Amino acid sequence: MSDGNQGGSKLKVVGQRPVRPDGVDKVTGRAMFGADFHLPGMLTGRIKRSPHAHARIIRIDTSAAEALAGVKAVATGADFDTGAGGEVEAGEGATAVKEVAANCLAMGKALYQGHAVAAVAATSPEIAAEALDLIEVTYEVLPHVIDVEEAIAANAPVLHDDLFTTGVTPKPAKPSNVAVKTVMGRGDVPGAFAAADVTVEGHYSTAAVHQGYIEPHACVASFGADGQSVVWCSSQGQFLVRALCAKILNMPLSDIKVIPAEIGGGFGGKTTVYLEPVALALSRKCGRPVKIVMSREEVFLASGPTSGAVMDIKLAATEAGKITAAEMTLKYQAGAFPGSPVHLGCMTAFACYDVENLALTGYDVVSNRPKVAAYRAPGAPMAAFAVESAIDDLAKKLGMDPIDIRILNGVRDGMKTVYGATVRSCAFVEMLEQLKAHPHYQTPVAAGQARGVAAGFWFNIGGESSAAVHVDEDGGVTVVSSNPDIGGSRASMAMMAAEVLGLPIEKVRCTVADTTSIGFSGSTGGSRVTFATGMAVCQAAEKVVVDLKRRAAATWECDIANVEWRDGAAVCTDPAKDVKPLSMKALASKSAKTGGPIASEVSINAQGAAAGYGAHICDLQIDRETGRTTVVRYTAAQDVGRAIHPSYVEGQLQGGAAQGVGWALNEEYVYGPKGTLDNASFLDYRMPVASDLPMIDTILVETKPNPRHPFGAKGVGEVPIVPPLAAVANAVSQIVGKRMTSLPLSPARVLAAMEEK
Amino acid sequence: MPRVQSISSRVRDFTGGLDAFDVEARTVRALIRELDARFPGLGELVEENMAIAIDGEIFQDALGASLGEASEIVLIPKISGG
Amino acid sequence: MSRVRISTIVNGEPVEFLGGGGQSLLDALRDELRLTGSKEGCGTGDCGACSVVVDGRLVCSCLMLAPEAEGKRIETIEGMQEGSELHPLQRQFLEHAALQCGFCTPGLLVASKALLDRNPDPSETEVRYWLAGNMCRCTGYDKVVRAVLDAAAELRQERPR
Amino acid sequence: MSGVDYLSPTTIAEAVKALGQAGGGARLMAGGTDLLVQMRGGRAKPQTVIDIKRIPGLMDIRAEGGGFVIGAATSGAVLGEHAALRKAWPGIVEAANLIGSTQVQGRASLGGNLCNASPAADSVPALIAAAAVCIVEGSNGRREIPVEKVQISPGKMSLAPDEILIAFRLPPRPAKSGDAYLRLIPRTEMDIAVVGAGVSLTFDASGTCMAARVSVGAVAPTALLVEGAGMALVGSKLDEGALAKMDAAVAAACKPISDKRGTAEYRTKIACVLARRAALIARERAGA
Questions:
Q1: Helical segments of C40-161, H only
Q2: Is the dihedral of CA C43, C48, C49, C53 positive or negative?
Q3: CB contact under 8 A, D186 and A746
Q4: FRET partner for D206 with CA separation of 20 to 30 A, picked from A264, A367, A713, D229?
Q5: A429: left (phi over 0), alpha (psi -120 to 50) or beta
Q6: What digits encode the pLDDT tens for the residues D221-250?
Q7: Containing H/E element for A508?
Q8: Threshold 0.95, pTM exceeds
Q9: What are the structural domains of chain C?
Q10: Best residue in A16, A24, A26, A27 to probe C by mutation, most C CBs within 10 Å?
């Protein structure tokens, strides 16, 4: 990096709020999302889903469907060929390919209501629907289990005969629904509890909630006769889709080109595949393009959610409020296949605080629910709900201000986390101080209302990214990003390139490339794009600057050491040369004569991501006769390093807060006695609407830029969903007069708690 | 001798429940060879599917990194996100 | 299959197409007319991503049958830009960064325009309730509401009453 | 859904005939905001959809006999824009305007809300409290029935297979009358009522309640007219004693189920809370 972490005052583009490069397409309806593609000869694909929560598939008879006029292909799990299997990096970490495949089309067993069992491709949606009815599936219905505690119980129906708990010694003799037991900790927990002045404890639970992106999953797949295939889809990672399709269908990666559509929200839920391998398998069978679009009901039944959790927590502290020890057990729903983010829950639970003695135990538990997918800071919000509630109890017990107790215990640079990282460039304490000084916190709580405070953490990651910078012959620039733009990242990529190149933002455009047009990149997720792909963009732009300086030096016949790049032009610093600066435009127009096209592509494995910390304040009131909660004021603060485009950073804070408020108050998966989902619609899965929320004030804390990023950026997308659950619950608990330990805080639950008191 | 700790349950299955042990190695490549020698299969697991924290910094891909006499190494599951 | 000829005016232009008797207006717009700016987020009238204006009324095009459009005037997101100029609402959405993924944006813009066409000076509360049927999962609505209020102010200046 | 035939008759007779001919395979459509959702979800599979919105008189509001006649397919948005109706029957208009979003308001109608035969329909308790009457026409001619007699169970109505709900008749409004409708939903908008309560009251010059009708929704298989609750208020000035008696009558009438939207116990409790609040708003509106 030429001058890593440039000072804010010198910056001309970074920190401004320009209109995003893809903005006009998005406000005029021109932007092409997953379901907007249409190819000649395209067929409609539909998926037949299990009506049962748990059933053995005895037989699938597709003959009648195949005989129906207009049906061109029928597929089942038998059409997949996962070969050696292996693992692929998906939203929550390593994911077994065989399980992703079996989630796309069931193999042997239907493990939840809505589990895909077969698929058809037909010449019209009506024929496809009729064909689904003609597929006869013979099931042996099995006992099901939905609840996480019931799934752990000894007599629970077992989902997978070959699932033995990992992390237990000796290896268990019997299969169970506990996929993994995670243990981590340090110090002497029993000793610290024995020596404690005060202790608090609690039993907490949260419901499964869905990411709730407004765009349902959608894709078009076209298999070529020579095997070369194209997939258009909305996902958080075109390379991830390619990898999973290749492994599930046993195809070479280079035969699959994945073209990223615009993506209508993901929040982690589009870091895996549901439809793409199915559409490609159908297309392989009939040689025609196949489009599959999920209905909203299918989205709820068969994609996404994140884990519901059951947690027990105990804290020990001194009289002064210093937390000396914590013990916590976390049980997370994984859904039908192993892979809940419980390990991330354990790692993040106390990441905001300096606690010497820790004991954390996590259980990853399968049950007859859809397989969980990553959701914004996967695993962290539930854990933080328990931790931040317990700290609130501690503050009450000691008569301390809720921000003060968090400052007292807050992590500072140099401290050690339980998962091995050392805290660095961390502004957690400064952030809390700014939050405390904010007019919201300084305003007394209005009569009849209560105020809750809570904090949250996310690691943020770096990883593999590629980017290219192309200088056009007229001096304009195109930045080629490798990551789908889910929330305005084209803007930040273009801004960082413009800053390095000294160009006005209008001269820089940004495009998102398909898998054949740019080097590999990890997915858009983990709050990594502005950091990692941004770093690749900066490095590519810096290489271009070096090239431009070289060309200017050649033009002037001077040493390159005497050429500086200032405000988009090469300037000669050799006093012996009387030459005018050479602008980008001038250099670009001569590129053919000075060495050919000016372009650079950089692929990196970005190291040095800095963690993010947030803290939120929520004021709310409750209708005492109905238990209905109204959020009246909300402020979110976050340690962001440096905001590249502050509006989009604020937007991340506001959007995450809104999702967290929904999680706290009304969102949940509701199951009936047969293990079927009762509320698979936006009508009854109640996400916040515009009239449910107040304005959401934000504080972007920029006192500790990340020294490992050219402009100091830290990931910002995940943290904002971590604090709201407890911020809301802490306020509700005050009004109710007792600790609210189960989410969501629905009107009936709150009223019952008020009446119990 | 560098001290290796693990917070991964999968590692525990290879080590017979051990969460901390010393390994004589000065590079991550050597560490992985050493892990495979002592706990067959563990080195490969770490190389393919795990992140490593070395003296407080998390590496998603640490093969080239060197280790000090008193390095603290933590084997952790790879972190992704939403 | 009973497909019928349907004559409508879409964004000011007379349009004829063949539509199924049970086909939604949304599907007809997207699949027959290839106007894919209107989105399907739910198909049940709960998300508003398919919002269009029919004879001056804001509706969900997923909750209207295509043949019902016979003889009606339909306005979609594709008709919102005036010539080569963005509508002030479109511009304010961009300037406020009132979109992240942009999927709900066409519906939000069509609904916001319908609001300002009948109420040029809405309060924040009126904006929030009018737009309650337009779900956005990315923004938390803050910047959306500000963009609509600022567009309203801009339009009031342009066309003093 | 494209196998469906779409008809848009322009007379009632034509619509009645089409309905009769379809022999159960047809569904009438007003705003379509329930029907289309059911068709899409596979819960309704009509061969024919009969759109009644092009029939004159089904899409407007007329002052008649001192009251109003509201075409069954008139949208909520049109009701909300009718100043005279809003003044006379603010409770009915607010109930109709609570159905769904602004977009749904552009289509959804009182007739559709009633004929969808859901116990949680927002406009139905308000219409029952108002003593509204349905005008129905079929092959056997025209008849009028009180709103509370139309629905007999969830999804089932007392209308003959070829009868069409054409309009609602609202009675003349005496001086010092007011109505109100309240519902409880977890969010501020977009939900189906967990509980709803409509109250219509008339007072004398001294502020004593002369007439009262109380109706609650989503607490039984159909919206209920709770006669005992009205009787509790008549003769009172809505003092605590009278309101407590109303509570008891409402609670006794509730026979709710527990489902994803609320527990039986919660629904009963809230029905009393909302009936009380609606009664006080109705009194305020009556100017008593």
A1: 88-95, 105-118, 124-130, 142-158
A2: positive
A3: yes
A4: D229
A5: alpha
A6: 999 999 999 999 999 999 999 999 999 999
A7: strand A508-512
A8: yes
A9: 3-79 (3.10.20.30), 88-158 (1.10.150.120)
A10: A27
